Amino acid sequence: MNTSDDTRAVLITGAAGRIGQAVTPALLEAGYHVIALDRSPVRTAGVQRLVGDLLDPELCYRAIDGVDAVIHLANYASPESGPPAVHLRENVVMDLNVFTAAAQLGIRRVVFASSIQAMTRTLDDGGERIDVPPMRLPLDESHPVLPSNTYGLSKVLGERALDYFGREYAIDGFSAVSLRLPWVVPESRLPDLAKIRTIEGWARWGIGEAFAYVAEVDAVDAIRLALEADVQGHEVLFTAAPDPRVNIPVGELIDRFYRDVPVAQAGPIDSLVDCGKAARVLGWRPRRSWRDLAADADA
Asked: What one-character DSSP code corresponds to residue 131?
């Protein structure tokens, strides 16, 4: 691998996906050498391109050998993106192939794109909405793991696998960060959230997720910081914007949908999510909100 002594090499799996395409230029700008792996050709300039299927364990060893870290984004993207059995089987096999190769090859850091659906009940395996609120608020990593579909279950199993590798390979310096990402909203879609003033139709699936979202630029920041943070073993982190993804005050949302949900602090809360752990572990704080763009438009 042709990298200088002071350049860190990072493998991104699923690099042709939307988040992969956003992460790659950010890492290049930060000085990383990026190896971009996907089933489809990656078109981003300035990267080393690999085409292959992570269901092949030998490919994983070849791709990972010689890198410093792995960002593992390559999974089915949602419960609607394939049959339930496929989500579970292929996501888990891809995860285990990547994690096993990384641990056995002495890789120091794996960053795993987990999901809010590991801990919330939002969609069943048929893609039907489940309006079950969180068990407590604000929503954070300590919320009980309650996936309602095999996609979410696959993310839970991926996290559990990293618990194992983070424990058993700690002596070799292996460590991992799982980011429980909510709905990742690209910059172009953020203004649309300002227009959501009623909870109807597709907006109702936010109920089970505490109406969480994260701007794409902030998700990219979290992934980059997860590469660089001082972490031992395996950490699971929740990264979300502090405001809900609808233009409705937090107090009104609580009155309408969460009246019987226990709140972890006395008095009114100003956010339905708590990302304090990500701030402590990564130094991560969200920089972008749909409210910024709404304010700009009103100015």
From this structure: -
Cβ contacts of residue 182 below 8 Å, gap of 6+? 115, 116, 209, 212, 213, 214, 239, 240
Query: Rounded to a whole number, what is the largest CA-CA distance in the chain?
Result: 58
Dist. CA 269–CA 137, nearest whole Å? 9
Confidence (pTM) = 0.93
Domain residue ranges of the chain, discontinuous segments joined by +: 9-298
Nearest by Cα to 162 from 230, 236, 224: 236
Among 3.30.499.10, 3.40.220.10, 1.10.287.110, 3.40.50.720, name the CATH number for the domain at 9-298: 3.40.50.720
- Residue of 269, 242, 266 lying closest to 258 (CA atoms): 269
pLDDT in tens, 261-293: 998 876 678 899 999 999 999 999 999 999 887
Question: CA 237 to CA 111: how far, in whole Å?
Answer: 11
Contacts of 224 by beta carbon, 8 Å cutoff, 6+ apart? 23, 26, 27, 30
Extract the tokens encoding 240. Answer: 């979300």
Give φ, ψ of 31 to 5 degrees: 95, 10
d(C-alpha 85, C-alpha 90), whole Å: 8
Encoded tokens for 29 = 């700008």
Q: Is 100 exposed, middle or buried (0-12, 13-18, 19+ CB in 10 A)?
A: middle
pLDDT at 6 over 70: no
Check if the beta carbon of residue 241 is closer than 8 Å to that of residue 211: no
> What is the token pair recorded at 169?
């390979």
